[in-house]
Each structure stands twice: as structure tokens, then as C-alpha cells.
Design a protein that fits this description.
The protein is an alpha/beta fold. The chain has three domains: about 10-210, Alpha-lytic protease prodomain-like; about 220-295, 2-Layer Sandwich (Alpha-Beta Plaits); about 305-385, 2-Layer Sandwich (Alpha-Beta Plaits), CATH 3.30.70. Helix content is about 60%, strand content about 15%. It has eleven helices and seven strands. The protein has helices at about 15-40, 45-70, 85-110, 125-150, 150-180, 185-210, 220-230, 265-280, 310-320, 355, 360-370; strands at about 1-5, 235-245, 250-255, 285-295, 330-335, 340-345, 380-385. The strands form two sheets. It has a four-stranded mixed sheet, covered by helices on one side. Strand 5 and strand 6 (about 340-345) form a beta hairpin. The longest helix has 29 residues, at about 85-110. The protein is rod-shaped.
Length: about 375
């Protein structure tokens, strides 16, 4: 079994700095919205301020999980801590669903009580406009960094900023409509945007659950991996390819079939070369486990496998006495193929009684095979003499 581990790099300081910046903006916006909403008699702006303060809580959550996900692998988490980001994305998607549900509920309630809703003052429009610009700016820079770092958590947080910007648009439309006498317009727009937020939350939750249950990557991605592996010199076939995601990274396990007559070191080198090609072409791959096979072992029956060397050596030594003296065997190479064993004997050149009677090497090999015919796992014998 060959395992090639590529150290997961720690994200740059950009993500923590951006999250601190987002937190400051959300705190200021939340306080200003609630204050101005109360003074300007705008319940929509107050609700939007609460939404911004929820963004602040999300920023704090993302900051902690981003730092946790960047930790190097350790004994308890040998594959790293990237799943902390996945967990954060799941929580974030759930928060978006709750926010969407709250907006829909509030809008429906307000639609039934239009006559009780007071007309807001113009400062609410100014604050809503500022909020739209600030939150859209945060969305753009957070989404850009999330795409560059392949961080679903940052991308999810970016959409949370976008949801707050859309919420402020609702306030802008609602306040403008209320000031012109069309109070219901705010509520209808709020329901539409809430459904958009719910869709985003559902998408984030779905992606997180798919990752947490180790769902394989897409067929197209797996096909590209297979094509890359099969192009490596010495690879006869690739099978048992398993893929899964861990945060922004991809983990692979695969079996490589190589020529059964090559050395162990050459097979090992082919595995190393395949790992190198994969990490060069696919930046997301962080860990590759390669199993080198001399044959396709997909349907191999473990219960019918031939014995290991100690048992084989004892059985053959007993079957071949006195034709082959144990001290004359320099080494014995065993080839396990198709559920049987092919044996290569390397002798030191000493002429044994059996070899004297059968000077022809092939005839002597055949005699050895016949002498061990009671061993069901022996197929062939090849002799090499110094």
C-alpha cells in the first residue's frame, strides 16, 4: 500500500483580515440601522439591522471555523481539519434558511396589518442605500477570495452578505412605496428575496451533507483522474478508484495494475509518479493512497488465497527432499498470480543428486512440480543457477 500525503497549506492572512473587516462593517451597520429605524419609525429598517447583527455573529463563526480548518493534520485528525469548514457551511446554510423563514413570516404578518404600519421617514432611505453599497462590496471581495481559496465557507458567507444587501433593497423599496402610499410592495418584495435566500441556504446545506457522507466526485472529474493515471508509463489499468471531498480538498484511493514481473521498487516508483502527475494536474487533491496490484484483484476471494512465504517454504522444502538441498537455495522468489504461486529458485550451482540424474534444467523443473503436485497452490517452477 502506497500512501502519498501532500501537506494541506495554511490559507493566507487574507481570510482572517477580511472576516475582521466584515465584522466591523456588520457591527456598524447593525447599530446604525436599528437606531435610525427606531428614530425614523421604520420597522423594516430595524429588522434589517437585526439581520446585519446576525451577519456579525456569522462572521465570528466563520472566523473561528476558518482558523480551525487551517490547522495541520495531527494524530487525531490525520486528514487535516478541513471538515470544520464543511460543518460551518452547514450551519451557515441553516442560518440562511432561518433568516428566510423569518422574513417570509414577518412579511405575511405585515400584509395582514397594513393599516397599522406607520409611514417611515426619509433617513431610512439613506441608511438603506448605504447598506446596499457596503454589503454588495463585502459580497464581491468575499466571493472573490472564497473562489481563489476554494473555500465553500467563505463563499457561503459572501452570499450571506448578498442576502443582507437584498434585504436592504427591500427596505429601500418598501420605504419608498410606503412614503408613496403603496405599503404592500415592501412585503411582496420581501417574500421574493426570502425565497432566494432560502434557495441559497438549501444549496449550501445540500453540498455540505453530500461531503459529510463522503459522496464520490462527479463522473466527469473521476474520468479525468483515470485518464491522467492511465497515461503514466507502466500502468496497465486502474480500478477501485474512490474519491471524496474534505473541505476545499479532494482525497483519492486507487489500485494500479502493473506488470507482475517488475520489481517492487519499480512498482513503488510508478505509484509515486502517478501521485506526482495527479497533484500537478489537480490542485484540489491533497491526499492519495495507491495500492500496487500485479493483477486485477477486484473479485479476489480472500478465503481462497494461497499461503504466505513461511508456509510455502516449509511445504516445498519437504516436498523436494532430497532433490534440492535447503542450503543450496540462495533465494526463492514467489509470484502470486490468479490464486496460485509461480516459484523462482536461485541455486548456488551445487550439483545435487536430483540434478545429476536430470541435467536438463526444464526436466528438473518438471520433476519438482510433480513432486509438489499435492500442493494446490503451486503452478510453475523456474530454476536459475549461478
Amino acid at each position: 500500500m502506497r500512501k502519498n500525503h501532500i501537506a494541506i497549506s495554511t490559507p493566507s492572512d487574507e481570510a482572517p483580515r477580511l472576516l475582521v473587516k466584515s465584522g466591523i462593517v456588520d457591527l456598524l451597520l447593525g447599530v446604525v440601522k436599528v437606531t435610525v429605524g427606531w428614530l425614523a419609525n421604520s420597522h423594516a429598517l430595524i429588522a434589517d439591522g437585526i439581520h446585519s447583527l446576525s451577519d456579525l455573529a456569522t462572521d465570528i463563526l466563520v472566523w473561528f471555523l476558518n482558523r480551525a480548518g487551517a490547522e495541520e493534520p495531527d494524530d487525531e485528525h490525520p486528514y487535516g481539519h478541513a471538515r470544520f469548514e464543511t460543518m460551518g457551511t452547514l450551519i451557515l446554510g441553516s442560518v440562511l434558511l432561518v433568516v428566510a423563514g423569518s422574513l417570509i413570516y414577518d412579511s405575511v404578518v405585515r400584509l395582514t396589518e397594513l393599516e397599522r404600519i406607520p409611514i417611515p421617514a426619509w433617513p431610512a432611505l439613506v441608511v438603506a442605500g448605504i447598506s446596499i453599497g457596503a454589503k454588495e462590496w463585502l459580497y464581491q471581495i468575499t466571493r472573490k477570495l472564497g473562489d481563489r481559496l476554494s473555500s465553500k465557507l467563505l463563499i457561503g458567507n459572501a452570499w450571506h452578505h448578498r442576502s443582507d444587501a437584498l434585504s436592504s433593497i427591500i427596505v429601500l423599496i418598501g420605504v419608498s412605496g410606503a412614503m408613496m402610499g403603496v405599503i404592500w410592495l415592501e412585503m411582496v418584495a420581501a417574500i421574493g428575496v426570502a425565497l432566494m435566500i432560502a434557495l441559497i441556504g438549501y444549496k449550501l446545506i445540500k453540498e455540505s451533507v453530500v461531503e459529510l457522507v463522503d459522496t464520490a466526485l462527479s463522473e466527469t472529474y473521476v474520468r479525468s483522474i483515470k485518464e491522467t493515471v492511465q497515461q503514466a508509463d507502466g500502468v496497465l489499468d486502474v480500478h477501485s478508484l474512490r474519491t471524496r471531498r474534505m473541505g476545499p480538498f479532494v482525497i483519492l484511493e486507487l489500485h494500479l495494475q502493473v506488470d507482475p514481473t517488475i520489481s517492487v521498487t519499480e512498482g513503488h516508483h510508478i505509484g509515486d509518479w502517478v501521485c506526482y502527475q495527479l497533484k500537478t494536474r489537480f490542485n484540489e487533491i491533497s491526499d492519495v493512497t495507491v495500492h500496487i496490484d500485479a493483477e486485477d484483484d477486484v473479485d479476489k476471494d480472500v478465503m481462497q488465497m494461497p499461503p504466505l512465504r513461511n508456509v510455502v517454504t516449509r511445504a516445498l522444502t519437504k516436498a523436494w527432499q532430497p532433490m534440492v538441498a535447503e542450503q543450496d537455495v540462495e533465494r526463492m522468489k514467489l509470484h502470486y498470480l490468479d490464486g496460485v504461486i509461480n516459484v523462482e529458485l536461485f541455486l548456488d550451482g551445487t550439483i545435487t543428486a536430483g540434478q545429476t540424474e536430470h541435467p536438463n534444467t526444464r526436466e528438473f523443473e518438471q520433476q519438482l512440480i510433480e513432486s509438489a503436485a499435492h500442493l494446490p497452490w503451486l503452478r510453475d517452477v523456474k530454476i536459475w543457477k549461478r
